[in-house]
## 1
Amino acid sequence: METGKRHDLAWFYCGAVLFAASFLLLFLARRAAGMAQWYAVYMYPVIVGTTGRIFGLFPMSVVEVLLYVTICLVPASMVRLLVRLILRKAGKAEAVHYFSGIWLTASVLFLLYTLNCGINYQRKSFSEQEGIVTEAYSVEELQRVCEILTQDVNTYAEQVERDGDGLMVLDGLERELAVEAMHSLGESYEGMAGFYPEPKALAGSWLLSVQNLSGIYAPFTVEANYNNDMTDYNIPFTACHELSHLRGFMQEEEANFIAYLACMESDVPEFRYSGSMLGWIHCTNALRREDIAAWKEVRGQLSEKVLADLQANSEFWSSYEGKVSEVSEQINDHYLKANGQSDGVKSYGRMVDLLAAYLKER
């Protein structure tokens, strides 16, 4: 057998083995009791401490750079191969070699996803691990939670830096401060302790904006990325949300709750404002669905400074509404359901239950 054919065959079998291994790990994570929890506690932190530390040395998002390279190279290489086949400068062997390479690359990426993300979906949730029990609560109790958050929002709104338009602005240190906030949270919750690389703003944040995404965790490079174009008050919360995935907590409602806790652990007013604002938005959205009159009463308690930030945020996201964002939401919905979050995108609202339980004593 020729050397080229042996290589192609080896790539095919190697890819098949990697795919099979990935499916087996995902199956065991769902079926073998305790396997995912053991992996998340003992193995995944090693990956974050090595892979996350290596890619964390780069100031830019490495996965973003790789995405752009892929977008440029893959179509170009396919066109080149097609032209060579048409002109008969390439034969079947070259086509087999090309697609065996694609197959092997896809299998490696699937394995990275499995190890750095997929298995963790089956671990114990943050609330289970920390003993936070959610209970049924009345609309009146939900309104009280919203009022508490309104008080917090109004308080921190007076402490943050603002630009000439009266909008909250960050000083550019949010990356370092997000890591500090997560470390502080780790002192209160053992499951959050560990190494955190700095979160990274995407250079092409419009890629997230058109999908109505504020941030994204990249399992292939273990990077926490956030949308740098959105209204500033979103950024601290989003950075902490994405960093929470580096502790193996993949469920979105859990990550939102962790982000709130991290922001409130920070001594920086902009972080506390961000955390209380996003908590307020989630809870008041739930209140509005249940009692529009109570929602109006709560919203009427907001200061003008808070209203200015909310208006700017609404205008920003409205400018990106369209088919792309709708398709993105549908894809995200199917993705969450495939990973055990049966309510899909609705699971983002479960943060309200966790916040209600957490703030009940206040």
## 2
Amino acid sequence: MKKKNNYFYDSFTNLMDYALEAMSILTKGLEDFRNINLLEFKNNVHKVEHEADVLKHEYEEKLAKEFITPIDREDIFVLYDNIDDLIDSIDEVSYKLYLRNYALLPNNLNIMIEKSFEAIKSLKEIFVNFRNIDKKSIMDPLINKVIVIEEEMDKIYEENVHDLYVESNDYDKNRTFEKVYSYFEYITDKCRDVCKTILIIMYKNL
């Protein structure tokens, strides 16, 4: 039983490692954005997303055959989907930058990239401690940390978008940059969504 528990707990952290890897590749590419090949950049991030999809499918196949799981089977499936959605949101950034052939990024994007990375790292920390899903005193602070980061990102997004339209009358450019900001705000939204699922599971297991 303990071995099976470890397997499912480890599966969550393993999938989160792919989220961190995708975010790391995305971040490094954006640091040298003027000099990157957008197609290669997109493909590098998408490769990680595809590998995560393959692993998720393997976990789901194994889950379908298990009779005993540490938490409800359907909850594990939902968490797999939530983490997959998070990785997809990271992949979406490089895809959209390539699709729309961006040559320039908006100012103050670094703080949004950092916040996204921080949210993903903090989310993984929740899964590292997921064996304590029935211990509210342990889980609550970890979950709240991600929620706070997401709220901070909402505020940063609002301020940055507002500043765009205050500082420039170039509506097309502003709309283009607003979309870039929204990509990273969406990543933290996905982290929050995973936390919502975890909260539901936690209260079911108290």
## 3
Amino acid sequence: MTYFIIILIGYLIGTSNMATYLAALKRVDLRAGGSGNPGASNAMILMGWKAGVLVGLHDIGKAAAAVLLAKYLFPETVLAGVVAGVACVFGHMFPFYLRFRGGKGFASYLGMALALHWKFALVLLLAVAVITLVTDYIVLGTMTTVISLPIYCAITQNILAALILCTASLVIVYRHRDNLVRICRGTEIGLRSANRGDHRVHK
């Protein structure tokens, strides 16, 4: 019952979607352009960098909040933070009120990492920044993060925590498969192109 409550709390927090709120306010159809995804990257592509940053911070913050809240409410439950964080990531990716069609989960995954292992997460964040700047594709930094965190947890925490994280990692990798294909074909929208506003709907 304890873990059910933790999962429910994490999932419901994860369903909050700032990209959807902003899109409704600005009358932008997130499904009609860019990646068609209600997440930070597509918010930047269609609505500008300010919207992208706001969405990203919201998605990071909600996952961190889910982890910290679960740890506070259930201090005796060893895996409370990990379970709540993963549930939050799934809530972001599969919100019930959007017909389970949410974002791709990276920003929330990063927020979970910050709350679970902030020092390692900062290293990951630096790696993401470097990889993105060099390649122009944030998705490559995403892959680095979701692969590295379970490995780190398996080494420093326990295998069960790593396996729980892997459930979210595998889904995130799968949901980014089209991005990886577009990178190989040279058709993926890079960060610089998005920042210039080449595909922007709302300025």
